[in-house]
Design brief:
Length: 266
């Protein structure tokens, strides 16, 4: 099953539209072992409420080799739990380098996973990522309109709409309902969700910003298709650090986001 199909399947069978982000900060822990154990505990505890899990590579890279080992363990544990993995790396570079990123994050042990990609170097640079995702049953999530306040500096003036049109052009080359090309649209822009839903009917939308960045689930209904599929709202700090390192609080937060998203859609 492809990444898009697996996520959609979980949304329909488990009634969840939540993507749980795992962005462990070393300063929250005694040491890397403590970070590893808590991150794995949060993953396992919140998995029943999640459509997918999204580790942000920066937090693991920050720990050097130890961090990369922890990341691989987190991804392996997610696969064992049946959770699709969306790797948040926001990669993007000239084609030959993009091909190396794609090899590292969309093939081998990461075959079938998804990767966030940055289209700033031009649409042609998406090709190596897309080829790997299509070959391996994975996906790419292209930055269309990011959640941060400064996004308008470079993403305004019709740029986001141009990226959205390219996402649709690429998905229209495929047969399945949701193609291999997803799109990142910040949950912090609820007024724009209907527009991007319309511009990219066959893209899974990743909506980051729930919780810590102030977005609320009740405002996201326009991102979904009428059957309640097609989007994933993500929360990282709001789940992993819902109340310090209390894993029960993480479960509570994930359950609450899940219910709010389901309520918003209904
Ligand atoms: O691609 C992302 O996930 C992403 C896109 C975006 O527009 N904004 C954004 O905050 N993110 C990621 O979402 C995570 C932040 O989630 P919170 O801790 O819930 O705010 C970080 O890993 C960000 O890199």
């Amino acid at each position: 099953m492809t990444f898009a199909a697996a996520v959609t399947d979980r949304t329909l069978s488990l009634h969840t539209r939540l993507c749980v982000g795992l962005d462990p900060r070393l300063d929250a822990y005694r040491d890397a072992d403590h970070l590893r154990q808590h991150t794995l505990d949060v993953l396992e505890a919140t998995a029943p409420h999640a459509a997918c899990v999204k580790p942000q590579l920066a937090f693991y890279e920050a720990l050097g080799l130890d961090g990369l080992r922890i990341l691989e363990e987190v991804c392996a544990a997610a696969r064992t739990l049946g959770l699709p993995v969306l790797l948040d790396g926001k990669r993007g570079d000239i084609g030959s380098t993009a091909a190396a990123y794609a090899q590292g994050w969309l093939t081998g042990p990461h075959a079938g996973s998804a990767l966030t990609v940055n289209p700033f170097l031009g649409f042609e640079t998406l090709t190596p990522f897309l080829d790997a995702a299509r070959r391996e049953g994975g996906a790419i999530f292209v930055l269309v309109k990011t959640s941060n306040p400064g996004q308008a500096d470079l993403q305004g003036g019709g740029v986001s709409e141009r990226v959205a049109a390219e996402v649709t052009r690429l998905n229209d080359q495929e047969d399945s309902r949701y193609g291999s090309v997803g799109a990142v649209v910040g949950a912090t822009h609820p007024q724009d969700l209907a527009l991007y839903r319309r511009l990219m009917p066959r893209a899974l939308l990743l909506l980051p910003g729930l919780g810590a960045q102030g977005a609320t689930a009740g405002e996201l209904a326009a991102a979904f298709h009428p059957d309640g599929t097609g989007a994933l709202a993500s929360a990282s700090r709001g789940v992993q650090y819902a109340q310090g390192l209390d894993v029960h609080a993480s479960i509570g937060a994930a359950r609450a986001f899940q219910a709010e998203l389901n309520g918003a859609f209904a």
